[in-house]
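Researcher: Here's a chain I'd like modeled. Treat it as a single chain, no partners, no ligands.
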Amino acid sequence: MIEVSQRARDIGDRVEDFVRSKIAPYEHDPRRDHHGAPTRELVREIRALAREAGLMTPHIMEDGSHLTQVETAYVLIKSGLSPLGPLALNTNAPDEGNMYLLGHVGSDHLKEKFLSRLVSGDEQSAFFMTEPADWGGAGSDPSMMKTTCKLDGNHWVVNGRKRFITGADGAGVGIVMARAEGVDEGGGACMFLVDLPDPAIRIEGAPNTIDNSMPGGHADVTIENLRVPADQMLGAAGEGFRYAQVRLSPARLSHCMRWLGAAIRCQEIASEYACRRQAFGKPLIDHEGVGFMLAQNQIDLKQAELMIYWCASVLDTGDLGTTESSMAKVAVSEALMRVADNCVQVMGGTGVTDQTIVEQVFRELRAFRIYDGPTEVHKWSLAKKIKKAHREAAASA
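Model: Modeled as a single isolated chain. Structure tokens:
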């Protein structure tokens, strides 16, 4: 069994108490935008509570160092016990992944100018990578990227379109990814840190989606002649695709952590309902059709937890862990979807209402099976590696 340090347990246990006692009561707060997401006003209010409790961005220490991935898992699982927990504690997507990337790749200049604003929780951020399908742009295959950047004096000029940019509406910091012109023959990508809002980054709208836990929704964006100072490039020119993996591998796992917490809470709610609700002369849980669903949930939750901690331990070795994070993303998202579906079914009509978080978590987990790489893309990637390993073994035989 992978050991979790005492410092992580201390932080995580405080996080759990805070989320259950202070944040869960806000789950029925009516301050929501037209997408159903929490308003910025509500986010500011619950973040003020986190600051008061000394729990803002609990996975990053005062000296700027991060908890290990195993330690982070313990804390982020606890933060996810309410859909509002990650927002309150600043462990939410895309900010958590953006902070991780900046911390690992950013220069001292960029950390001072941008990272400190995110770690404090004073501002939120957006990661501009995905592009519209009708434009032939990048989705699960980032090599299809059509947004371009070109050096002009001491600035880079960026032009293109982006889609499903979570939190772009209301963000103060953006990480923009574009294919470089004139950098190398392969047209490697670059990443840039930008202050938002910027008139060159125009939000065209945001479609209503099945999930609504993230303020600002998932915006469609046009970038027209965005001028970025050269010293605001993240890392080196042409290395953007590699940096994307630096961000995405841990970020996939962080999603698994947060949503495991939410699924655990759903299991608690459904179990309480099944033990209290009577039907045909006995509690629902005494009917095998119901009891077995909750038992299977316990199995799926434990398997998801073990997968998360195993993958976190691999990442802590210093390996980017793309294989491990792909396996975790598939296994955990599919398992938690089953858990949420069972919870809805156990609760019957109540399960499809907004009287509890079960209905929302069911919707959010359905979206989780798609973002940060659909299940099928990860399986395709894993199959390619199986084929490669087979060829190499055959060649050396």
